[in-house]
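User: Modeling request: complex.
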Amino acid sequence: MFYLFGFGAVFGAVATVTSRKPVMSALFLIVNMLCLAALYAQLEAHLIAVLQVVVYAGAIVVLALFVIMLLNLQEKQGLVRRHKIALQIIGGVIVAIIVTSLAGSVDPSAIPISAEGMEEFGTVAGVAKVLFTRYILPFEIASVLLLAAIVGAVILSRSKV
Amino acid sequence: MDIAVPINYYLILSAVLFAIGAIGVVTRRNAIVIYMSIEVMLNAVNLTFIAFARQLGDMGGHVFTFMIMAVAAAEAAVGLAIIIALFRNKRSVDVDEVNLLKG
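Assistant: Request completed. Predicted assembly structure:
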């Protein structure tokens, strides 16, 4: 199961980055996010898995699709020189090697899974209990952030910018 | 459900997704595709949070993922508004053509 959804997520991400048409990118982004939601469910993060589908695959990608259709974009080709792109990709691959070797060096036996016996790990009740007690300040700050984002979006989308 | 998958696999998958998103950000020129690559990177980080939350039995990771989702939603609203404003002024969303802040 892990390999199925893992390869699905990687395929979705690669296709998002390499697709010529932005609409195809957005659709492959949905594939990537649904596979990640399945992985979250396997990691017993049920609330986050549902939120991933609703918020990311639902709201955010649909918003991006609206903008793509509103602007009716055409991708221009051949503007960046070949060697420049090759350099960027080589840099990206080096970053990938460094980060994956870092991730691979974590010894899983050193940190035993301590979530196994927990009753309501990852459920709505469990996450809510933590969110509204220990993390109440970040929660309130997030509300201010969203308000600021609403005001900013309204100001930016007025006719005169 | 396969509980047997060790945390390394999730971390490596997350690192690969992050690198793919980073390559997308630096190689593409379409602002919307860059925005979607940033979403891929944010999701990769979320996967790391969730994997460690389960391994350590601490639901703080879930709360933090929740916060990242809120930030991503705010970013979607503001970022796409910026892209629309950009398109209105320049008739294009090619990031190479945007040089207002260039000295």
